[in-house]
Fold these 2 entries.
Entry 1:
Amino acid sequence: MFESLSEKLQNIIRNTGAKELTPENMQEALREIRRALLEADVNLRVVKAFISSIKDKAEGENIIEGVNSSQQLIKIVNDELVELLGKEVKPLDLSANPSIIMMLGLQGAGKTTSSAKLAVKLKKEGKKPLLVACDVYRPAAITQLQTLGKEIEVEVFTIPDSKDVQNIVKTAIEHAKNNGYDVLILDTAGRLQIDVDMMAELLLIDRIFNPQEKLLVIDAMTGQEAVNVAENFDAQLGLTGLVLTKLDGDSRGGSALSVVYCTGKPIKLTGTGEKLNALEDFYPERMATRILGMGDIVSLVERAQEVFDEKQAKELEEKISKDNFSFNDFLKMQKQMQMFGSMGNLLGMIPGLNIGRDMKDMISHESEKQFKRMEVFIQSMTPEERNNPDLINTSRRKRIAKGCGADLADINQFIKQFNQMRAMMSGMNGLKGMFARAGQDGANLNPHSKQGKHAMQKAMKMMRRFK
């Protein structure tokens, strides 16, 4: 997400080597920033307003002793990005009981999947959500929602063969009140384009049931069209917020900047992966620092707290301390690391890691490929060998190589690296404890404060140990 824009802005700011900001050197920098934003598919209206604001701020900026022009420009661009992205996090309004969240959008934007992801998120926060199948037109839409509901263990309310969406919502509200559900997520119908019939149905639901949230789900890959869709929905329904999906697949990311500015509506949630836990609150300040290549350590620590299972981590910690770390434990640890999301996304959260998009893609691809190879190696072992690596002698290695179709040299190299890691980890205690302690210090802290910097240092130390 934003990788192309991020890379270009970093290069522009890095190349601003003058001692102070002047109209002359600012003109060149602003020209490059304008070009970078347009190439990232940011709407022209937004680009003009953004550049104008930076120019006004820069020309009125007092020169701070000991701060060079690139540092000043970083501060100005960062402040404007935060402003452009909505200033501060806007939480969902869940004040009613039950609260109604209306999911809106065109077909293919990820509305049904986002509804399920939102249910997962709300469950984690202690809510009891109910998914309501209101898309009675798209073939298999209800079946898709029911399949997702079964996977995440959330009830899906539907009335078989009914096309009366108003009655479905009305009955769902009664069902929620009678069964203790405190949030209803309405997966409404979409179309290939906005039409009168679709909007009339949505308007009736809005006016009769007064949902607390009307969230428009937008595919970040649609680029400029996202602005038109958002403005049309907002004009008709008065949106309360936006959900941007597929941000992990959009290297440009301009639609996120454009939609917020053009509609004046906040991005409330972002989808950053295919997994059903990959829906996150949107933090403008954190996203601005990531666009400028400054990382997002707070999100990294929060993600670590979500991913690492406390019970499994304690068991792993005990095994490491007793030198009983097995291939099965290795697989569990790798799978937990994979739950962070793509390696490229993870690298983007690490401060000071100024590597290009191509390098991130290569690292992400190679790490995924290597993990799959290692998984095949381990699956070719017997259960006894997986639990006790010391059993694997030369003849067993030959059998494993033959079983998975690999060269013996590859198996030997893998086992050698595993044993080296095992020896290194035997002196390491408290994997989960380190993440938890860093999380307590780092979550919701200003990364520029003394405590925030301390949390960053802790988290960076942890990441180095996982390399």
Entry 2:
Amino acid sequence: MAIRNVIFDFYGTLARAAHPTPSLTELLSMLGVDVTPEVADRWHVERLDGVVHAEASASRETYEEWEEDRWRRMLADCGVTCKHAANLMNAIRVQVRGFHVASYPEAGAVLEELRSRGLRVGVCSNWHWDLDPYLQQAEISGLVELAVTSARVGARKDHPLIYSRTLEAMDAVSAESVFVGDSWRPDVIGPLANGFVRAVHIDRGRGAQDDLPPGAIRVADLSGVLSIV
């Protein structure tokens, strides 16, 4: 079958932080919270990859409550008492929901070229409830047909549900679709396991050492996608 659809991850693939931004554990350390390596590993966001949270995604309110409950439990794991948790929670909210993004230099031109070839372009991201404002910040909102987030679907990549919902929203099939992203399991292994004809791993000079499975290709940046589709 011919390739008709190109689906992108968002953060780390199409866009990055507009300004240097500490990770959540780095932020807490800066605020005087003792985040041990064990705690940092236990609460790293990648621990959520593949997780289903359908009940939490019933509405924006339930999702944000679910998200904040995780932050509170992380603070408790760091030994933070309830007395000090409120101020720290405010800092986390600003960090996680209030930062700004910018597109990678080649992103806009690549998306425009794909669309000029008649390909349909979508976004599938492990992201919070709203992605549209960040697409606008990155100045690519008019270059993608739609964007699907884990918060709204109720499952995070690499769970099959988020891929199927994205394809359904695009009225597309996996056998005619390519997935592009920078994360190994969510953007390469997951899509291939769910029938995508190809997965493109964006390396950006990190020197990834993972062996590429059949159907996977590694490129330096988004420009490399143009030679594949």
